[in-house]
Structure formats: structure tokens, C-alpha cells
Write a structure and sequence with these properties.
The protein is mainly alpha-helical. It contains 14 helices and no strands. α3 crosses α8 and α10 crosses α11.
């Protein structure tokens, strides 16, 4: 599907989806919708999974993964239901997530959701710049050592160098700033292809290292540490409004597309989690700052001559694809709400506003990758993709029940259970936020 730049409308956030791209409608299929969901879900979030699941072990983390997937599936259905109802009420197809929030919860709700949206983007851009710079710095150091064998052996840095972060930002930020939409689409497509090939290769290379006895580790008290990262890994809600438009508001077809599209990443993540956790020794449960990163162990290991390179390619390109999407998304939000002079000057200023803060924070705190993802998942995603969808559907169903039938059975509901189910979604999101806050303050 070819992305089209959005146009401004009377709505605060018009046709904006989470990646900042609006799509021209044309009749779609369940298969295409499922592919879009799967492609959106598989990204840099998968890199943080093994580090936060390792303390708990394979079985507890896999069970938790299924639970988080189910929660995100239900919240995704709520986003779809809200979007369909608003399109039916307004007669305007193609409404994005934030435009749906505005139509449902009003301008204050849209502004609050927009702030959370910006928070998520900045948090993840910080994470991606830190880890992408780390990998790039190590790759350049290895390349320098190979090109200069006569010089003393250069130790690959375990702490990312500032110039690695700068190089990563300049490389991919420069592509976005200077490249045309067509060029960026081609580059992103090549990166996605490389990610898929590297992922399959990585599974193949690590299968020989798997020791089934390592799967027996079980620390159920450590599973809570993985929830925020899993929430980030299973986010695809940004493209749901695109699918509801393509499937013309058919709730049954939308439900099937979301189910099938999210099921593929669940299987991939479960395989990934099992293979990685079966390839490295377990670690004692601890805080997010004390994590042992299995991906880094594999990248720096020498168990297979190609393993380190494949891990680096997979990690860097997965980060790059997510980085591109989040920069474009944040750029579209700022362009929607800012007017800073003539276009060239405005574009330069906006890119500086988007790229420099994450770069600065990643240089100041180079090991911020896990903390940034943790914050985005525990707070930003729990609010925007947990609480907000439930509130929107709660209000829309209440409005419908006032003129039709009971909230529990009125037509158009994609999630059964009525208000108790919506309340449960909100409570679970609040519980994740509260648990993370208590952990951060040292109470837990």
C-alpha cells in the first residue's frame, strides 16, 4: 500500500494515524489488513523482550506473553469499534486514531492523547537512538580493527560512544530529511526485507545452541518486569483506523484481520523468546537497570562465526525501521500544530526538534534503551492503548444505548461483556502504571 501525505482538515488531528501517515481508501481484504497489522507489530520492541523475560524464564514469560497479546487484541478491537462508530456518526471515512479521540472525548481529550502520543514517540526515539548508536559504534569499531590489523587489537566498546549516536541520527535522520517519499518508502522496504531475512537466519543459527534444560527456569515473581516491554512489542493500534476504512467498517472482517495479523507476531515472538532464552544462561530477577541482555551476549559471542554479524544486522535494521516510522509520525503531529515561517525553514526546525533531544539524552545516558521502552510501555501505551479506547467505547455505547437498547447487547460491539469488560481493561492498565511507579520509587 502506497502511503499518501495527509492534508489538513477541520479536525485537530485529521487523518493522522500513529505513524503520521494517511492512506487513500480503496477496497481492502482481510489478508491485506492482517499483513499490515503483522508488519506494524514486528519492530524494535522485539529486541528488548529477551532481556526482560530472561529473569522469569521461558514458561512464565510465554504465558504472560499470551496474556498481554490477548489484552492488546481486545484493546485493538475497542479502537476499531470506536473508529467505526465515529465514522458512522460523522459520515467521514479515514479518521485516524487521534481524530477519533477528538470526536469522542472532545478537544481536551484529543490534546491529552496527543501529549501522550508525543511522549511515547520521544521515549522510543531516545531508546532507538541509544541502541542504534551502540550497535553502529561497535560495527564501526570492528570494521576499523579489520581494516587496520597491524594496529593493536581494538576492543569493541561495551558502552556506546557518542559518535555512534551522532552517526546513527545523521544517517537515518538525513535520509528522512533529504529523501523523497518514494525514496524513503524504498529504503524502508529494503530494511524490512533485511529484518525478515536476518530474523529467520538468527533463529537458524541459534537453534544449535538451545539447551532445553534452560527452559525449566521459573521465577513467577519476575514476570511483572516484562509487561511494559511486551505492551510496546504488541502495539499495532496505530494502523487500525486504516484497516477499518479499507474494510468499510465491517466489524466482523476487521475483527478477523486484527486477530490473524496479531497472531503472527505472537508466534514469532514466542519462538524468538524460546530460542534466545534457551541459548543463554538465566539471570536472577532484578530491576530494569540490572538486566542482562541476551541479544548483546549473542552479538558479542563467538559461538558461530556469523552469529554476531546477523544479530547486529537484525537489531540495527529493526531499530532503523521503527526509527523512521516514529520520526515521520512525530513530524506529522508537529506540522499539524505548528506554523514556523516558510516551509524549508519550518522543516529544518522541526527535524531539529525531533532528532536533537533524543540524541542528547542518549549521549548523556547511553544505557537508557530499556528504561525508555519501559516508560513508554508502562505509562504512554497503557494510557493511549488501554484506558483511552475503553473510555471512548464506554461513552459511545452509552450514547447508543440512550436511543436504542442495552449497552451489553446493542449492535456494533466488537468486544462482549459490556461495561464490566471495559472496566476490567481500564483497571488492568491502571495496575500496570501503578506497579511500574511503585518499582521506580523502590517500594516494590
Amino acid at each position: 500500500m502506497k502511503p499518501q501525505r495527509k492534508t489538513h482538515s477541520k479536525a485537530l488531528f485529521s487523518n493522522l494515524d500513529f505513524d503520521g501517515i494517511a492512506y487513500m481508501h480503496r477496497p481492502g481484504s482481510i489478508k491485506n489488513g492482517a499483513v499490515l497489522i503483522a508488519g506494524t507489530t514486528v519492530g524494535a520492541g522485539v529486541l528488548a523482550l529477551p532481556a526482560v523475560t530472561l529473569p522469569a524464564g521461558a514458561l512464565p514469560s510465554t504465558i504472560l506473553m499470551v496474556g498481554v497479546w490477548l489484552y492488546m487484541f481486545v484493546s485493538g478491537l475497542l479502537v476499531a469499534e470506536a473508529n467505526i462508530r465515529v465514522m458512522q456518526q460523522t459520515g467521514r471515512p479515514g479518521l485516524g486514531l487521534l481524530a477519533t479521540v477528538e470526536a469522542t472525548l472532545g478537544r481536551p481529550g484529543a490534546i491529552a492523547a496527543g501529549l501522550v502520543y508525543i511522549f511515547i514517540h520521544y521515549a522510543l526515539l531516545i531508546a532507538y537512538t541509544a541502541r542504534g548508536g551502540d550497535i553502529l559504534a561497535s560495527a564501526l569499531a570492528n570494521l576499523w580493527a579489520q581494516l587496520n590489523p597491524s594496529i593493536a587489537v581494538l576492543t569493541v566498546p561495551t558502552v556506546p560512544l557518542w559518535w555512534g549516536h551522532v552517526a546513527f541520527t545523521m544517517l537515518f535522520g538525513g535520509i528522512l530529511y533529504s529523501g523523497s517519499n518514494r525514496f524513503i518508502t524504498v529504503v524502508n522496504g529494503l530494511l524490512v526485507t533485511a529484518v525478515v531475512v536476518a530474523f529467520v537466519s538468527l533463529l537458524g543459527l541459534t537453534l544449535g545452541q538451545v539447551q532445553p534444560t534452560r527452559w525449566l527456569t521459573q521465577h513467577w515473581d519476575a514476570v511483572g518486569l516484562a509487561i511494559p516491554v511486551m505492551v510496546v512489542a504488541f502495539v499495532y493500534h496505530n494502523v487500525i483506523p486504516v484497516i477499518t476504512t479499507e474494510l468499510e467498517g465491517d466489524g466482523g472482517r476487521v475483527r478477523r484481520a486484527i486477530f490473524l495479523g496479531s497472531l503472527v507476531p505472537l508466534v514469532m515472538f514466542a519462538l524468538w523468546n524460546g530460542v534466545i532464552l534457551g541459548s543463554v544462561e538465566g539471570a536472577a530477577a532484578g530491576g530494569i537497570g540490572d538486566l542482562l541482555d541476551p541479544i548483546e551476549l549473542l552479538r558479542q559471542g563467538r559461538s558461530h562465526p556469523l552469529l554476531g554479524e546477523v544479530v547486529a544486522v537484525f537489531s540495527e535494521f529493526a531499530i532503523a525501521t521503527s526509527f523512521i516510522g516514529f520520526v515521520v509520525g512525530l513530524l506529522s503531529v508537529f506540522e499539524d500544530i505548528a506554523s514556523l515561517g516558510e516551509r524549508t525553514k519550518r522543516r529544518r526546525l522541526l527535524y531539529m526538534l525531533i532528532l536533537l533531544p533524543p540524541l542528547a539524552l542518549s549521549v548523556i545516558e547511553p544505557n537508557i534503551f530499556f528504561d525508555a521502552i519501559d516508560f513508554a510501555g508502562a505509562y504512554g501505551n497503557s494510557i493511549l492503548f488501554g484506558i483511552v479506547p475503553a473510555l471512548m467505547v464506554w461513552k459511545l455505547r452509552h450514547q447508543a444505548s440512550a436511543t436504542s437498547c442495552s449497552d451489553n447487547i446493542h449492535p456494533g460491539s466488537l468486544v462482549p461483556g459490556g461495561r464490566p469488560a471495559l472496566f476490567a481493561i481500564i483497571i488492568l492498565a491502571v495496575a500496570v502504571i501503578a506497579e511500574n511507579a511503585l518499582i521506580k520509587t523502590g517500594i516494590l
